[in-house]
Design goal:
Elements lengths: L4 E5 L5 H9 L4 E6 L2 H10 L4 E4 L5 H14 L2 E6 L14 H29 L3 E6 L14 H18 L5 E7 L6 H6 L11 H12 L9 E4 L7
Parallel strand pairs: 1-2, 1-4, 2-3, 4-5, 5-6, 6-7
Length: 231
Protein backbone atom coordinates (compact mmCIF):
# COMPACT_ATOMS: atom_id res chain seq x y z
CA UNK A 1 0.00 0.00 0.00
CA UNK A 2 3.00 2.32 -0.53
CA UNK A 3 1.93 3.41 -4.01
CA UNK A 4 0.85 7.06 -4.33
CA UNK A 5 -2.83 7.92 -4.57
CA UNK A 6 -4.83 9.03 -7.61
CA UNK A 7 -8.48 10.17 -7.58
CA UNK A 8 -10.64 9.93 -10.71
CA UNK A 9 -14.25 11.08 -11.00
CA UNK A 10 -16.64 10.05 -13.75
CA UNK A 11 -15.49 6.46 -14.09
CA UNK A 12 -17.66 5.40 -17.01
CA UNK A 13 -17.09 2.68 -19.61
CA UNK A 14 -14.90 4.83 -21.88
CA UNK A 15 -12.34 7.42 -20.81
CA UNK A 16 -12.96 7.01 -17.08
CA UNK A 17 -12.24 3.28 -17.00
CA UNK A 18 -9.22 3.77 -19.27
CA UNK A 19 -7.84 6.39 -16.89
CA UNK A 20 -8.23 3.98 -13.98
CA UNK A 21 -6.38 1.20 -15.81
CA UNK A 22 -3.54 3.50 -16.89
CA UNK A 23 -2.96 5.23 -13.57
CA UNK A 24 -3.23 1.92 -11.71
CA UNK A 25 0.14 1.05 -13.27
CA UNK A 26 1.72 3.39 -10.72
CA UNK A 27 -1.02 4.43 -8.27
CA UNK A 28 -3.69 3.24 -5.94
CA UNK A 29 -6.74 4.67 -7.69
CA UNK A 30 -9.87 5.94 -5.96
CA UNK A 31 -12.72 5.63 -8.46
CA UNK A 32 -15.74 7.91 -8.02
CA UNK A 33 -18.93 7.38 -10.02
CA UNK A 34 -22.67 6.78 -9.59
CA UNK A 35 -22.79 3.27 -11.06
CA UNK A 36 -21.93 0.84 -8.25
CA UNK A 37 -22.03 -2.25 -10.47
CA UNK A 38 -19.49 -0.77 -12.89
CA UNK A 39 -17.22 0.32 -10.07
CA UNK A 40 -17.29 -3.07 -8.40
CA UNK A 41 -16.54 -4.83 -11.69
CA UNK A 42 -13.60 -2.53 -12.34
CA UNK A 43 -12.36 -2.91 -8.77
CA UNK A 44 -12.29 -6.68 -9.28
CA UNK A 45 -10.18 -6.15 -12.40
CA UNK A 46 -7.77 -3.48 -11.14
CA UNK A 47 -5.72 -4.43 -8.05
CA UNK A 48 -5.77 -2.02 -5.08
CA UNK A 49 -8.39 0.24 -6.69
CA UNK A 50 -10.94 1.76 -4.34
CA UNK A 51 -14.56 2.27 -5.47
CA UNK A 52 -16.57 5.17 -4.04
CA UNK A 53 -20.19 5.47 -5.17
CA UNK A 54 -21.12 9.14 -5.36
CA UNK A 55 -23.13 11.58 -7.47
CA UNK A 56 -20.75 14.53 -7.77
CA UNK A 57 -23.74 16.81 -8.42
CA UNK A 58 -24.74 16.30 -4.78
CA UNK A 59 -22.38 18.54 -2.76
CA UNK A 60 -23.00 16.80 0.56
CA UNK A 61 -22.40 13.35 -0.92
CA UNK A 62 -19.31 14.63 -2.69
CA UNK A 63 -17.85 16.16 0.47
CA UNK A 64 -18.43 12.90 2.28
CA UNK A 65 -16.65 10.96 -0.45
CA UNK A 66 -13.71 13.39 -0.47
CA UNK A 67 -13.39 13.08 3.30
CA UNK A 68 -13.10 9.32 2.81
CA UNK A 69 -10.31 9.91 0.32
CA UNK A 70 -8.39 12.10 2.76
CA UNK A 71 -8.72 9.36 5.36
CA UNK A 72 -6.85 7.11 2.93
CA UNK A 73 -4.10 9.59 2.12
CA UNK A 74 -2.99 12.64 0.15
CA UNK A 75 -3.66 12.33 -3.59
CA UNK A 76 -0.74 12.86 -5.94
CA UNK A 77 -3.07 13.16 -8.97
CA UNK A 78 -6.71 14.26 -9.18
CA UNK A 79 -8.64 13.96 -12.46
CA UNK A 80 -12.13 15.38 -12.83
CA UNK A 81 -13.60 13.35 -15.68
CA UNK A 82 -17.26 13.45 -14.62
CA UNK A 83 -19.37 15.32 -17.15
CA UNK A 84 -22.93 16.54 -17.51
CA UNK A 85 -24.10 17.14 -21.07
CA UNK A 86 -27.15 17.09 -23.30
CA UNK A 87 -28.44 18.88 -26.37
CA UNK A 88 -30.77 21.84 -26.79
CA UNK A 89 -30.76 25.44 -27.92
CA UNK A 90 -31.32 28.55 -25.84
CA UNK A 91 -35.09 28.49 -26.32
CA UNK A 92 -35.69 24.82 -25.62
CA UNK A 93 -33.39 23.69 -22.81
CA UNK A 94 -34.71 23.02 -19.35
CA UNK A 95 -32.96 25.47 -16.99
CA UNK A 96 -32.68 22.64 -14.45
CA UNK A 97 -30.43 20.74 -16.88
CA UNK A 98 -28.00 23.65 -17.16
CA UNK A 99 -28.01 24.02 -13.37
CA UNK A 100 -27.27 20.32 -12.80
CA UNK A 101 -24.51 20.36 -15.42
CA UNK A 102 -22.97 23.34 -13.67
CA UNK A 103 -22.89 21.36 -10.43
CA UNK A 104 -21.23 18.39 -12.16
CA UNK A 105 -18.78 20.16 -14.44
CA UNK A 106 -17.84 23.26 -12.47
CA UNK A 107 -18.89 23.12 -8.82
CA UNK A 108 -17.65 19.57 -8.30
CA UNK A 109 -14.28 20.66 -9.68
CA UNK A 110 -14.21 23.53 -7.19
CA UNK A 111 -14.90 21.10 -4.33
CA UNK A 112 -12.08 18.83 -5.52
CA UNK A 113 -9.60 21.70 -5.70
CA UNK A 114 -10.55 23.20 -2.35
CA UNK A 115 -10.34 19.80 -0.65
CA UNK A 116 -7.14 18.44 -2.18
CA UNK A 117 -5.01 21.42 -3.23
CA UNK A 118 -4.07 22.43 0.35
CA UNK A 119 -2.78 18.96 1.22
CA UNK A 120 -0.99 18.71 -2.12
CA UNK A 121 0.74 22.03 -1.47
CA UNK A 122 1.75 20.79 1.98
CA UNK A 123 3.11 17.60 0.41
CA UNK A 124 5.06 19.68 -2.13
CA UNK A 125 3.71 18.09 -5.30
CA UNK A 126 0.59 17.15 -7.21
CA UNK A 127 -1.38 17.41 -10.42
CA UNK A 128 -5.00 18.45 -10.90
CA UNK A 129 -6.50 17.75 -14.33
CA UNK A 130 -9.97 18.15 -15.80
CA UNK A 131 -11.05 16.53 -19.05
CA UNK A 132 -13.21 18.70 -21.25
CA UNK A 133 -14.15 19.32 -24.85
CA UNK A 134 -14.30 22.16 -27.34
CA UNK A 135 -17.55 23.40 -25.79
CA UNK A 136 -15.15 25.06 -23.33
CA UNK A 137 -14.02 27.39 -26.14
CA UNK A 138 -17.20 28.01 -28.16
CA UNK A 139 -20.92 28.01 -27.66
CA UNK A 140 -22.63 26.25 -30.54
CA UNK A 141 -26.38 26.64 -30.93
CA UNK A 142 -27.37 23.18 -29.68
CA UNK A 143 -24.83 22.98 -26.85
CA UNK A 144 -26.44 25.53 -24.54
CA UNK A 145 -27.24 22.93 -21.88
CA UNK A 146 -23.55 22.37 -21.12
CA UNK A 147 -21.20 24.66 -23.08
CA UNK A 148 -21.49 27.50 -20.52
CA UNK A 149 -20.54 25.06 -17.76
CA UNK A 150 -17.53 23.71 -19.66
CA UNK A 151 -16.29 27.23 -20.37
CA UNK A 152 -16.67 28.03 -16.68
CA UNK A 153 -14.86 24.80 -15.83
CA UNK A 154 -11.87 25.73 -17.95
CA UNK A 155 -11.68 29.29 -16.60
CA UNK A 156 -12.00 28.01 -13.03
CA UNK A 157 -9.10 25.67 -13.69
CA UNK A 158 -7.04 28.45 -15.28
CA UNK A 159 -7.51 30.55 -12.15
CA UNK A 160 -6.47 27.53 -10.10
CA UNK A 161 -3.36 27.09 -12.23
CA UNK A 162 -2.30 30.69 -11.67
CA UNK A 163 -2.67 30.26 -7.90
CA UNK A 164 -1.37 26.73 -7.46
CA UNK A 165 1.33 26.52 -10.13
CA UNK A 166 3.76 28.74 -8.22
CA UNK A 167 3.12 26.52 -5.20
CA UNK A 168 4.26 23.41 -7.05
CA UNK A 169 0.91 21.99 -8.18
CA UNK A 170 0.50 21.31 -11.90
CA UNK A 171 -3.01 22.20 -13.10
CA UNK A 172 -4.06 21.29 -16.66
CA UNK A 173 -7.14 21.25 -18.89
CA UNK A 174 -7.37 18.45 -21.44
CA UNK A 175 -9.99 19.11 -24.11
CA UNK A 176 -11.00 16.12 -26.22
CA UNK A 177 -12.13 17.38 -29.63
CA UNK A 178 -13.16 13.99 -30.90
CA UNK A 179 -15.66 11.21 -31.12
CA UNK A 180 -14.43 8.91 -28.36
CA UNK A 181 -14.33 5.24 -29.28
CA UNK A 182 -17.30 3.82 -27.37
CA UNK A 183 -20.18 1.71 -28.72
CA UNK A 184 -22.69 4.54 -29.13
CA UNK A 185 -20.32 6.71 -31.20
CA UNK A 186 -19.55 3.74 -33.45
CA UNK A 187 -23.27 3.29 -33.98
CA UNK A 188 -23.77 6.97 -34.85
CA UNK A 189 -20.73 7.06 -37.19
CA UNK A 190 -20.59 3.55 -38.69
CA UNK A 191 -18.65 4.50 -41.83
CA UNK A 192 -15.65 6.13 -40.18
CA UNK A 193 -12.20 4.54 -39.95
CA UNK A 194 -11.02 3.10 -36.64
CA UNK A 195 -8.41 5.79 -36.09
CA UNK A 196 -10.96 8.56 -36.61
CA UNK A 197 -12.19 7.76 -33.11
CA UNK A 198 -10.15 8.83 -30.10
CA UNK A 199 -9.10 5.72 -28.21
CA UNK A 200 -9.88 5.95 -24.47
CA UNK A 201 -6.58 4.20 -23.77
CA UNK A 202 -4.69 6.79 -25.82
CA UNK A 203 -6.52 9.64 -24.05
CA UNK A 204 -5.56 8.08 -20.71
CA UNK A 205 -1.92 7.78 -21.79
CA UNK A 206 -1.83 11.47 -22.73
CA UNK A 207 -3.35 12.42 -19.36
CA UNK A 208 -0.73 10.26 -17.65
CA UNK A 209 1.99 12.07 -19.58
CA UNK A 210 0.59 15.49 -18.62
CA UNK A 211 0.38 14.50 -14.96
CA UNK A 212 4.11 13.70 -14.98
CA UNK A 213 5.57 16.57 -17.00
CA UNK A 214 8.75 18.12 -15.59
CA UNK A 215 8.26 21.47 -13.89
CA UNK A 216 10.28 23.23 -16.58
CA UNK A 217 7.70 22.35 -19.26
CA UNK A 218 4.22 22.25 -17.73
CA UNK A 219 1.29 22.72 -20.10
CA UNK A 220 -2.14 24.05 -19.18
CA UNK A 221 -4.32 23.98 -22.32
CA UNK A 222 -4.10 20.65 -24.14
CA UNK A 223 -6.37 19.69 -27.04
CA UNK A 224 -6.57 16.07 -28.17
CA UNK A 225 -7.79 15.75 -31.76
CA UNK A 226 -7.70 12.75 -34.13
CA UNK A 227 -6.19 13.25 -37.57
CA UNK A 228 -9.61 13.19 -39.27
CA UNK A 229 -11.44 15.65 -37.01
CA UNK A 230 -12.47 18.91 -38.69
CA UNK A 231 -11.70 22.08 -36.74
Amino acid sequence: MSDPLCVITGVGPGTGSALVRKFAERYRVVMIARNERRLQALAAEVPDSIPLVCDVADPEALQSALAQVLAIGTPRVVIHNAVGGGAGDILSIDPATLERNFRINTMALLHLIQTFAPVMVKAGEGAIIATGNTAAYRGKANFVSFAPTKAAQRILLESAARTLGPQGIHVAYVAIDAAIDVPWTRKVLPDHADDFFASPADIASECFHIAHQPRSTWTFDVVIRPFGEQW
